[in-house]
Amino acid sequence: MTLVRSEDRLALANLTDQALRVRAVEAASTYDTETLVQVTWAYMTTASRQGARTSRKTLDAYALAVRDFVPWAHEHGVQLLRPGRRDGGRYVAQLQTRPSQGRGRQGQLSAATVAQYVAGARALYRALRWAGATEAQPFEDAHVPPDPTPGIVKNPPYLREIDAVLEHCEPRLAALLLLCAHAGLRVSEALAVKGTDLQGARLTVSGKGGKVRRVPLGKRVRAALAGLSPARADGSLFDWTYAQATYRMHKAFRMAGHGGAWRGFHAARKHSGTRLYSATRDFTRVGLFLGHASVDTTRRYVAVADDDVQNEVEDF
């Protein structure tokens, strides 16, 4: 896989309209996957709604999708610049019936994975239109059925695992887990925390889309952070990549006897949302705490018992 630097993406965007169109047409005509990834990234970082604030995670996800769709199109005789009106639906159907290749997984690709791949393919065609290469929209009428299983069911919050795992974490790893499970940070936000972001009992967090929020910290989180020295010269408290942090945390889960329960850092963030909702019964306040733009998003982070309103309906 070719690693494309941000300046390379800007270089494409800085081409003249004619030069950009020629580059995009040539890449699409020859099924040049990596150049099409660059075109998609250039569009995403300069012309999409998020622009330069588009997260690296989103860019990587779309690159993965382009690297899947372009070879499929080549193999199945799809002309990228002049696709058939049913080609988008054909690709969606193929994804829905494709066996999962994840480690230890069986069955077909998940609905979320299908949706991610299709979103990336749609972004490719928005990029090709932006580059002036084609007006085709093969996915305009392609529908991706929603996943019938709620995310909170597929990936529920950690419960008692948190305290058990903390006993097997060295101080810096414990601080990272508490930032996610008690302060509700995304792991990317937690790994970016600097000592200067701490102001007493609050933490300034730079979240998705460049949004900044002030997060109140409980005493356990404050104590964990107070014991840390900077890990980098710029004052960052962590010097781990996402992969390095994941490796360490999964190891701690295994040491605590919960290796099979490891579901990533997001389940820790859901732990904080669920606990806060149990205390406040207010999705709006939980959403503000987690940094959500929509309460509908917050609802997907909170596990509510099936009999949550039993007492309320008792005397109906």
TrEMBL record:
Keywords: DNA integration, DNA recombination, DNA-binding. Residues 152-315 form the Tyr recombinase domain. InterPro entries: CB, DNA_brk_join_enz, Integrase-like_cat_sf, Integrase_catalytic, Integrase_recombinase_N, Integrase_SAM-like_N, Tyrosine_recombinase_XerCD. Residues 42-129 form the Core-binding (CB) domain. This is Integrase/recombinase XerC. It comes from Deinococcus metallilatus.
